[in-house]
Amino acid sequence: MKASDLLDASRKATDTTHPAVLSLLPGNAGPVEIPAISHMSDGDLWVLFFHAAVPSTAADPGANVMGLVLVGHAPENT
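Structure (tokenized):
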């Protein structure tokens, strides 16, 4: 998917002119059993870890584990 098409689809998902913002974490931070919801005290985050069919490298085209932040707050950049 081209970046412009992805942004357009994301804007439609939010029904605004601003695309949706999702915070993802690498799967190596997650629990052993997947899918799972886990609390991370660093940042007070609640994260859903799941398998995603996104290759990490050309040599490893299998499913990978990703973490989607469901609840949390990041400090604003000043």
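The first strand starts at residue 24 and ends at 26. Helices lie at 3-14.
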